[in-house]
Amino acid sequence: MGVKMRADCPRILLAGDRSSSGKTTIVAGLLSALRARNLKVQPFKVAMDYIDPSYHTWITGRSCRNLDGYLMNEAAVREIYAHAAQGADVAVIEGVRGLYEGYEGDLGSTAQIAKMLRVPVIFVVDARSITRSCAALVKGYMDFDPEVQIRGVILNKVGSERHADKAIREIERYAKVEVVGTIRRNEDMHLAMRHLGLVPVLEGKTRHEGFEERVDRIRQIVEEGLDLDRIREIAREAEPLPEIEPDLYLKNDCGKDLSIGVAQDEAFNFYYRDNLELMELAGARIVPFSPVHDASLPEVDGIYIGGGYPEIYARELSENQSFISSIQKAHEKDIPIFGECGGLMYLGREIEWDGECREMAGLIPGKARRGTRRIVSYVHGHLAQASPLGRAGEYIMGHEFHHSEMLIDPKARVEYAIRLERGTGIADGLDGIHNGNLVASYSHIHSASFRGFPASFLSACRNRRQ
Question: pLDDT tens across 266-276, in order?
Fold first, then answer.
């Protein structure tokens, strides 16, 4: 058994009235402002997102962790929170969509996490074009579920000082909750976007001029608009949480002396820190590599190519033929390879995007191209056959997050490792193309929702090595 964990640092959750309320930008500014006060800030994101957490991690210098009440039970949510928050001065949780939006009822919602962690909520309202109606909106959200502790309000996209004063007066009169900040409409409060949401940090820093200056400007606007001292007071008023007996973050030796290569560059950077940390806790060494920049793979026992935007870097990936050759040779040697979404696209024959077609690794008989719709969904099903992901019949949960589709060569004989009961997958509810020790899927997995990962993958790496 592990040592019991207790996270006693102050905590706060920022939730929105809807997806476009502007909470992500405000959270980025708040994290930056708190860091500017020399505080150790631990960020969290509700739901299984990669891009917002990349900003949180970059700003705070601490790995952002995801909290999802659909994929994780309450014990797992509390353990992930307690584990990450150790040593922090304050924890800041960013919600997802509207406060009460979930998979079914409370399940998977920001409100569910707020109640699991007994965390005070700061409610972000898009106040554009409304004043007195802000009070009705806030009061309605407060009355909807009294167990959710809405302790403060931020009015975003305010048009003028008069607009703000009127809205504040009505909110405090009717909803009886304080307004802890107002943000005026400002074009500087926008970050670069594309088909899956915000541009990831690594790309923003290398491809978008003035990116870091824009983030710093957001910090300045938030510092001017929010009562940071009062927000910190509310965070300190969070009720104590019980100690946690570790169940997920346990040291073991199933990865002892193994080296796992992980693709980490502009094209591939969608990873949950927990997945990599559990490999390290199992004794494995994480070895970063870059399919964009490196000439070849390092010497490793397993290969993990996560999600990202290989379509944006298709030319660079395709032109790096020496690296593609090293991936092909690793597959010939039966080194376990797990490709996750972007990794699936890279391991295919081609990526066709915006009128250009580029050759890829060719280990999967298919071509990735822009799909007709954006897929954002939970998935669950069973492993259809034994693979580096686990034993046949094991239950698997995860999510999909992509705007591409994989067209499989109809003449090719293809086996799938995953049969989905919910989700799109690659074709007809099937996912996880399986070829020897290679598995590549659209499904993203998290070690707290699919407990077979990474232990099964590390076991495959050890078996191949022996």
Answer: 999 999 999 99
